[in-house]
């Protein structure tokens, strides 16, 4: 097998329209490979198709066309092995209220055919911080505890790949830290992690590589650092020693923002200008500099740049 945990080719999904609505093409021919051992981010605005993609990987949504190989197993040829290779922590919190965490993990292990002797129920509950709730009814668990249980359920069959769909949406800091600690630990042990998140800072911090999806297509896929480097704009912020003059002659294409704290933020293209040109313009305007620093682009800039474009004609 290759070094890819996931290989997706020409993946399409069209949902049939209901009540006279037209059909919805949620995925329009996705090609994507996800390397083994990575923490891979799947980003995109609402409705981009991320959940559809994840649900196809999880075997919950049937694709319209294309090929999906999970840990080398083609979903159509080896559905059992491909399902056994992946664990998914879904977004929704609905679960059977009459199961205890211990019971829920046992049932899940049974579904995946994990023999009793190989079940790690208490280890998993300990890992997600639910060992003291092992025998509490699910209906008495808080939202955060239910999320912990969903993570535990995704791990019962010790999958090679763990998929987390918006794991930290609306959770408190403690739970978020618990989640990321576990994700890093599992990744250190060799597990491939795929996650969607709306928190771009989080994606920037956690993910080695990122694919951005928009209108059912992959618009870009690269290492996180390369994505950020693609943004050519950079900002030089100057704190003047005293009030700044209203007129400052700037090189063409440089934008000036006067900030509330009195600082001047010059945004320029790294390809066209050097910071020295700006400092010269500032000096020529008679401004004395008290402090100066630069602001780099971040993932949010990349994301906005790539997803703000008007929808392409069908
Ligand atoms: N069961 C369904 N029937 C019809 N259309 C659907 C169905 N599920 C999703 N869609 C449509 O497919 C498109 C992609 O939806 P999807 O949920 O995959 O996006 P998403 O990127 O996960 O968005 P979000 O971040 O809001 O979860 C959307 O236009 C959505 O309305």
Structure description:
This protein is of the alpha/beta class and 314 residues long. It folds into two domains: 4-228, P-loop containing nucleotide triphosphate hydrolases (Rossmann fold, 3-Layer(aba) Sandwich), CATH 3.40.50; 232-296, Alpha-Beta Plaits (2-Layer Sandwich), CATH 3.30.70. Helices cover 30% and strands 28% of the residues. It is built from ten helices and 14 strands. The chain has helices at residues 50-57, 79-84, 101-111, 121-127, 143-155, 173-188, 200-206, 224-230, 275-284, 299-307, and strands spanning 4-15, 24-35, 39-43, 65-70, 73-74, 86-89, 161-165, 192-196, 209-214, 217-223, 233-240, 255-258, 264-269, 289-295. The strands form three sheets. A six-stranded mixed beta sheet has the order 6-7-8-3-9-10, with helices on both faces. The longest helix is centred in the middle third of the chain and has 16 residues, at 173-188. The structure holds adenosine-5'-triphosphate. Residues 6-240 form the ABC transporter domain. One of its GO terms (molecular function) is ATP binding.
Q: Give the termini separation.
A: 37 Å
Structural Rg: 24 Å
Q: Order of strands across the biggest sheet?
A: 6-7-8-3-9-10
Helix content: 25-40%
- Number of DSSP-assigned strands: 14
- Largest β-sheet summary: 6 strands, mixed
> Mean pLDDT score, rounded?
89
CATH architectural type of the largest domain: 3-Layer(aba) Sandwich
Query: What would the CATH topology of the largest domain be?
Result: Rossmann fold
Strand content is: 25-35%
Could you say which small molecules are bound to this protein?
Answer: adenosine-5'-triphosphate
Count of separate structural domains: 2
- CATH superfamily grouping of the largest domain: P-loop containing nucleotide triphosphate hydrolases
- The helix-and-strand class reads alpha/beta
User: What pattern of helices and strands is seen along the backbone?
Assistant: EEEHEEHEHHHEHEHEEHEEEHEH
Question: What is the overall shape?
Answer: elongated
CATH class of the largest domain: Alpha Beta
Low-pLDDT stretches are none
| Count of alpha and pi helical runs | 10
